[in-house]
Amino acid sequence: MYREVRREHGRLDALINNAGTSNMNHFMTTPEAVVRKIFDLNFFALMNCSREAVKLLNKSHEQSPAILNVSTVAVPWALDGQLAYSASKSAVEQLTRVMSKELAGFNIRVNSIGLPPVRTLLTRTLDKSVLDDLIERQTIKRMCTMEDIFGPVEFLMSRDSTFITGETIYLGGVN
User: Fold this and answer.
1) Which CA distances in Å does 144 have to 10, 27, 37, 62?
2) How do beta strands 168-170 and 109-115 pair?
3) Which letter, b or e, does each residue of 133-172 get, where b requires 16 or more Cβ atoms within 10 Å of its Cβ?
4) What is the model's pLDDT at position 119?
5) CA 71, CA 89: separation in Å to the nearest integer?
6) What is the pLDDT of residue 110?
7) pTM to 2 decimal places
8) Confidence (pLDDT) at 89
9) What DSSP string runs through 112-146?
10) Contact at 8 Å (CB) between 21 and 41?
11) Residue 130 pLDDT more than 90?
12) What DSSP string describes 70-125?
């Protein structure tokens, strides 16, 4: 993919790392292979994708190109049955903070956004009562929509946020 971007455009102005998987299960009964699979996608794929992107972000004409990593409110909420998922996304948030420092010299900003429940493949399989309980934890008591995500993402990727880096912004209000 990056070879094609390099060939066609020669640069990259922004990257959004939005891949994730989960397995809701008590940590005592979650096989190690499942945990490794979650970390492979949620953390290692994101880190490797960012490594390749930085090579092209360095060629950007933007004053401050940006990387945005997608995290989750499961990190501060420490939800039962989501140890592997929330730990992998905690690692993403730490990666965001460290990368923001390591890439500051290249004027590349790195932030993350923590999403509450959004209608996705991950949430479609949840029982309604579980989903309702999650929404009840939020300050804004409704399901997050894609439209709710667009504004913060657009802001964090834009020139309006060139002095913001290393931050995680949680949507919906984390109680």
Assistant:
1) 36, 27, 27, 30
2) parallel
3) ebbebbeeeebbeeebbeebbeebbeeebeebbbbbebbb
4) 82
5) 5
6) 98
7) 0.93
8) 98
9) EEEE--BSSHHHHTS-HHHHHHHHHHBSS-S-B-H
10) yes
11) no
12) EEETHHHHT-TT-HHHHHHHHHHHHHHHHHHHHTGGGT-EEEEEEE--BSSHHHHT
Q: Mean of the pLDDT values across residues 171-175?
A: 88
The burial class, CB within 10 Å (0-12 / 13-18 / 19+), for 53 is buried
Question: Domains of the chain by range and CATH?
Answer: 2-170 (3.40.50.720)
- Per-residue pLDDT tens over the stretch 51-102: 999 999 999 999 999 999 999 999 999 989 899 999 999 999 999 999 999 9
Average pLDDT in the chain = 94
Structural contact between residues 48 and 16, judged by C-beta atoms closer than 8 angstroms? no
The owner of tokens 């579980």 is: 130
58: left (phi over 0), alpha (psi -120 to 50) or beta: alpha
Strand order in the sheet with 66-72: 14-17, 66-72, 109-115, 168-170
